[in-house]
């Protein structure tokens, strides 16, 4: 059985009627590792929150051996089974032999975190990023228009990346679209409460969305971490 990392999470509703963010984490007894998932519902509606909770739970329950893309596809099947119109974006991190496999749709992010530096490893699936990639002007609204989601993405549209060593930070856009890179790095310097401080600072700086973070401590870090209930 692989040694499980220390991790902690936090979430705040912000100036919304509903907190449509959700997290999941699950390690099967005697299994090969742990799966982390963070979902962000599309819109401020109960259906969005339900979709995010469903996606995060289904993704986290995917066997580690199947990998991160399989976890996103499991989330998609679960959300489609809900019927209705609820949708979300999602980022998944699956523990591997030498780090983590990452998969995502939409603008939820993963960062590599080694205790000294933080590096974004996902690339937002947004209209703004699409226009940047094609050297076209970007408007502020484009930052909030996603081009993939759990409900709509085809398998070949799921983004993938790897983190070969160290820890992780997973965030909803209420965190990373409010906090600058240097601010995030400063907060991660106090990792025993980094997830809580990422969320609190994003809201206090005027963030207009729900804010959620999962921080997975780098291996060997001498840290006291907060326990959190795994996905149901």
From TrEMBL:
Top-rank taxon: Bacteria
Domain PPM-type phosphatase: start-end pairs: 6-218
Molecular-function annotations in GO: protein serine/threonine phosphatase activity
SUPFAM superfamilies in the record: PP2C-like (SSF81606)
InterPro entries: PP2C, PPM-type-like_dom_sf, PPM-type_phosphatase-like_dom
PANTHER family: PROTEIN PHOSPHATASE
The protein, known as: Serine/threonine protein phosphatase
Species: Amycolatopsis alba DSM 44262
